[in-house]
Every structure is written in structure tokens, then in C-alpha cells.
Amino acid sequence: MPKAKLLFFCQNCGFESTKWMGQCPGCKEWNTFAEEPQAAVPKKTAAGSVRKDAPHPKTLSEIEVSQTARMTTGMGELDRVLGGGIVQGSLVLVGGDPGIGKSTLLLQVCRNLSAAGKKVLYISGEESLQQIRLRAERMGTFTDLLLILCETSLETIREAIARIQPEVVIIDSIQTMYNENVSSAPGSVSQVRESTGVLMQIAKGMNITIFIVGHVTKEGVVAGPRVLEHMVDTVLYFEGDRYASYRILRGVKNRFGSTNEIGVFEMRGSGLAEVTNPSEYMLEGKPEGASGSIVACTMEGTRPVLLEVQALVCQSNLAFPRRTAAGTDLNRANLLMAVLEKRAGLRLSSCDAYINIAGGIRMNEPALDLGIALAIASSMRDMPIDEKTIAFGEIGLSGEVRSVTMAEQRVREAKKLGFTTVILPAGCKKQASRVEGIELIPVKNVREAIQAIL
Questions:
Q1: Which residue of 49, 122, 244, 311 pairs with 375 in a disulfide if CB–CB is 3.0 to 4.6 A?
Q2: Cis, bond preceding 379 (omega within 30 deg of 0)
Q3: Which pLDDT belongs to residue 217?
Q4: Mean pLDDT, the chain, as a whole number?
């Protein structure tokens, strides 16, 4: 065996280098490189020789595929994000800020799976058995099919999984696990990467579904190398303010389903409760008769979500007016304000502008453009918009209102929640006209949209 050599890894993104550098070329962060020994690699087989146990390639017709049904988690919102349920033998990464509810969600999944007759193994490297018991007692009753193990050694965990043969395994968290073959400290780039590789072999080799909990950095990405996200089958992120009651589970990567779906949960004393109608939840507390407020419709996968867009425009005393956006892209908001000034005649260059998506949710779909533009125009003229009106549509640089997808589903959701008027692109009128009992106002440009409601 050759000697192990020393390498330098970026603790933020996992960039590998043979020497120390002040700034990481990958993520552009400063002073993030740490020295870690690289595991020794055995010598390669001599050229021309063939191993007896070498695998033989197969054609597609020779590969047998069993159409097994997905395993439901007992939580419809989580099943939606996973693409219909748990795929057997998959490796799922769940990331989020500390205290956001990752462990609570997975412990509830363990309760539902064990109640359905599935053997589940919950492995914790952060909490003791007594702490897990206290947290579980707040959620309800658990069956004896749920087994708890407090361990951080991957070799011991492998032996326990091989002996127990569970159907689902929870690893909480990957930053506490360590591989004895890697000499670096737990939580380092090398340990996280090698530990995930071992868990991937267990999941694929034993056909066991493994959920991995991963902590995130201040930028919102999983701590450790980004290669961790490439190794797993599904990446789920928990979003939302830890001090607020709601949580949003978003699929970032999914080899077995769509990555556009979201699940909405509400944190309660007994755990996470599903929010089956996010639109009604997001619109709760909407002010009446206030200018600069309108309801817009955005799509998250196959689910339409209605949310309130707020804007506050006022004269500025500064040389450079202040612009702020919460819940949407600030550059996009500046672009829309430039379009309103050029195409609709609104004098916004000397005004401060503050834009907010109520509820703390973050949305960047282009269909949100029309709602933002109308909210800005309403605040600028100090004229309220009818409370039963919603708007959706993409705005181009020429001021045109472009068509968006799934117009019928958006209008149907608006009708279900009691809205009577929809401002929509003219190109979407044909599809949206299938929904009866609601007034449609098609517009071709942003000037027509402002004239229609103000």
C-alpha cells in the first residue's frame, strides 16, 4: 500500500487541492481550506490481467426490472414531494437549518411506517435514547417495529443493519458519522463523502431505503462537499423561518419524480401537521381595502398556490432610491419597475420601493410578474385593488404580458377560494375559459392591466 498523501479540502463546497489557498476557486469563499489526509489507494491490477470477479456488462434486454409499488409514508405532503412515495433501495438526503424540523418529520415517518408493519431502524448520532424517547412521547404511540440505535461508527452501523434487516433506515445526522478508514475528524469533507459512499453501498446492495439528515451552511446548502448531493437519489430541503409555524419541504433533486413539487407543514406541539390547502393558509390575515396588495397565483409542480404580493412605494429623500424585495428576486423587481416607468408612464425613478411576498415564502416563477407590477402601480397611485381579484402572467421588456402554463388549474384554484375576477394574459383566455362562474379579464400589455383594475 502506498503512503497516504495530504490534500486540502474546502469545508464549504468540497473543492480539492494539493496546496492551501486563501480563496476557494469553487465557491469563492475565503479561509475555508483545511488539511485532511487522503486514504491510501491500493495498487492497480497489472495491465492486461483480468480479475476473476470482474462484472460483465449487460444489454438492456437482459436487465430484469420488477415493478414494485412505492411505499407510502403516511404523510400525503411528503409523498407528493417524493414523487408518490418511497422507492425501495433509494438514498434520500433531507437538509435544513438546525431546529427547522428534520428529525421531527423523520420520526413521524418512522411512526407511520412502523404502524403499517414496516421494520424501521432510527440511528442517531446527536441524541441519546432517553432524549429520543421524550421527543417521541409528544407525537403519539409507536410500535415495537421501530428500533432505536445511538451510534456514530459506520462499521458498527453496517453490522447492525445486516443483522436486523430493516426496510427503512434513518441516519441523523451524516455530519456525526465517521468511517474508521478515514483519519480525519467527523463532519469533515472526507468523512462526509466516505460515509455517504458506505451508506449508498448499503442501500443499493441490501435494497434498503436510507434517509440521511444533513445540516446546512449559512448559504442554505448542505455542509460538506456538493458531491454529496450527486451521490444520493433524492435531495429534500426544509425551508421557512424556524420561529414561524409553517415549514416548506422542497425537492431539489429526485431521480424518481418531479423536482417542482413542494409540501407545506405546520409545526405544532405534537409534531408537524400537513397543510393540505396552502393557498388558504398563505392568504390568512390579508388586509382589507389597503393599496399595494393583490393576490397572485404561482405553480409549484402540479399544485397552484395563491399568495399575497405587497408593495409600498413612497417618495425618496435619498440620492439613490432604496429598493428592497423579500420573497422574490430583487433584480427581477427592478426590471419590472423599469418596465412600468417606460411602458406605463409611472414615475418610479425618484421613489423608494419595498416588495414583499406575505407569509415568508419565496417564489421566483415568471407568472408572479403581473401581480408584482399591479401591486406597485396600486401603491404608487394609492388606489386599492378589489379583494376578489387575482392576477398572473409574465411581463416582457416591451411591456407585453406573456402566456404561462397551466392557466386552467390556476383559475380553478382561484374560483375554489371564492375569487370572482382573474387578470390573465390574452393568450391564456382560451384554456382558462373552460372554468365557468368566474370573470376573466385578458390583457395584452401591462398598461391594459393597470387600466382594467385601477
A1: 311
A2: no
A3: 62
A4: 87
